Amino acid sequence: MDELAWRAVKGRAAISNESSRFERERRVPVDDGWGEGEAETVGPRTRILPDRARTVISTNQSPDVPFDQSLNPFRGCEHGCVYCFARPTHAYLGLSPGLDFETMLFAKRDAAALLTRELRAKNYVCRPLAIGANTDPYQPIERSEQITRSVLAVCRDFNQPVGIITKSALVLRDLDILAPMAAQGLARVAISITTLNRDLARHMEPRASTPTRRLAAVHELVAAGVPVTVLASPMIPALNDHELEAILEAAAGAGASGASYIFLRLPLEIGPLFEEWLRQHYPDRADRVLSLVRQSRDGALYQADFASRMKGTGPYAALLRARFLAAAKRLGLSGRRWEMDCSRFQVPPAPGDQLSLL
After folding, report:
1. DSSP code of 300?
2. How many H helices and E strands in the chain?
3. Residue closest to 245 by CA, chosen among 176, 310, 196
4. Contact 138, 170 (CB under 8 A)
5. Distances in Å between the alpha carbon of 260 and those of 230, 276, 334, 351?
6. What is the pLDDT of residues 41-78, one digit of tens each?
7. Rounded distance, CA 220 to CA 331, Å?
8. Three-state DSSP state, 261
9. Are strands 69-71 and 58-59 parallel, antiparallel or unpaired?
10. CA 54, CA 160: separation in Å to the nearest integer?
């Protein structure tokens, strides 16, 4: 069988499905004779597998994120954002950060029960809980799985403050839970809007809500009393960076009260995946994009230190930050806020509990 080059497939962002950094074998596309010399143009179907997690609350001590505990209902993400910093986590499962990350998904179907147990623990200290810090809690499979909704119901019952990070308009489905929580200072939503260009979004984030639908979601959330921050992330030099002010203006027009941005991050396998995607879809500017990234990462495609990993370094990164600060100030977008009321947290009676006489 003849070896072929990896080729883009409709509805997926990653071009290749190379083995992870922990595997010894190398995956290659081949012509088995049935395609008459043509590479397969239809990608793998989405598969949903159970995730047998024993706990669901993850903690971090990162000084550059506004929360220290989070919950992710899914591993892998069907949105398929080519730049997703969570892609390398699939390597720990023996899977590829490429197409496997978009098609081999793991659902934490016991998440609500596990969260209930963890919130009832005597040593639990209430702090805001971020849902979707790694992969999107409202990716397409949530329509049928409804894991995020069940987790939100638990948070509502405990008065557990929750912040949602998503790029999906499906979040509107749960307004019946989010709006009453927000009225008590217990809920916020952050919506990622990377570009206003529908064609760019289709290539870069193939199964996420369109930019128009995300802006409409911002408007509806705010109208229902849910505070919304817009994340203009990631900013990619020579690709979407010229849209920064336009994204913030659209966000302010939709009612967002805060904004933030992150400079493109390309750790581990994401660097080769992104370059492969860039040369496939935007070959005319690939070298320029990668050059500006390296200029903002001290000559490398990525640096992991907390001081610079989110914003980059050098003249280009400094100019991008100055542009953001000026636009955010002008538009009244005071930055990403994560303050919520933890004083309302209360463990509800469990079925069968004896009522107190005092």
Report:
1. S
2. 11, 12
3. 196
4. yes
5. 7, 28, 9, 43
6. 566 899 999 999 999 999 998 888 889 999 999 999 99
7. 19
8. strand
9. antiparallel
10. 20
Strand residue runs (E) in 226-300 = 228-235, 258-263
User: Which distant-in-sequence residues (6+ apart) come within 8 Å of 329 by Cβ?
Assistant: none
| Cα gap 210→194, rounded to integer Å | 10
Q: Helix or strand or coil: residue 142? A: helix
Encoding tokens for residue 68? 């220290």
Q: Which two tokens stand for residue 145?
A: 């799985």
Collect all residues with Cβ–Cβ distance below 8 Å to 30 and sequence separation of at least 6: 1, 2, 3, 4
Q: For residue 155, what are its two tokens?
A: 């948070």
pLDDT at position 141 over 90: yes
Q: Is 237 helix (H, G, I), strand (E, B) or coil?
A: coil
CA distance 236 to 290: 9
pLDDT above 70: percentage of residues in the chain? 90
Residue with tokens 């080729």: 7
Q: Position 10: which residue type?
A: K
Q: Can you tell me the distance from the alpha carbon of 220 to that of 204, in angstroms, rounded to the nearest whole number?
A: 25
Residues counted in the chain: 358
Q: Report which residue type is found at 145.
A: E
294 is written with which tokens?
A: 């390296």
**Could you tell me the CA-to-CA distances from 166 to 39, 55, 64 in Å, in that order?**
34, 22, 19
**Domain segments of the chain as ranges:** 17-28+43-262
Q: Which two tokens stand for residue 262?
A: 């992150």
Q: Which sign, positive or negative, has the C-alpha torsion 135, 127, 111, 222?
A: negative
The beta strand positions in 172-298, using DSSP E, are 187-192, 228-235, 258-263
Distance CA(13)–CA(79), nearest Å, equals 9
Query: Domain 17-28+43-262 is in which class?
Result: alpha beta
Q: How far, in Å, CA of 172 to CA of 215, rounded?
A: 12
- Identify whether the C-beta of residue 282 lies closer than 8 Å to the C-beta of residue 273: no
pLDDT digits (tens, 9 = 90+) for 279-328: 999 999 999 999 999 999 999 999 888 888 999 999 999 999 999 999 99
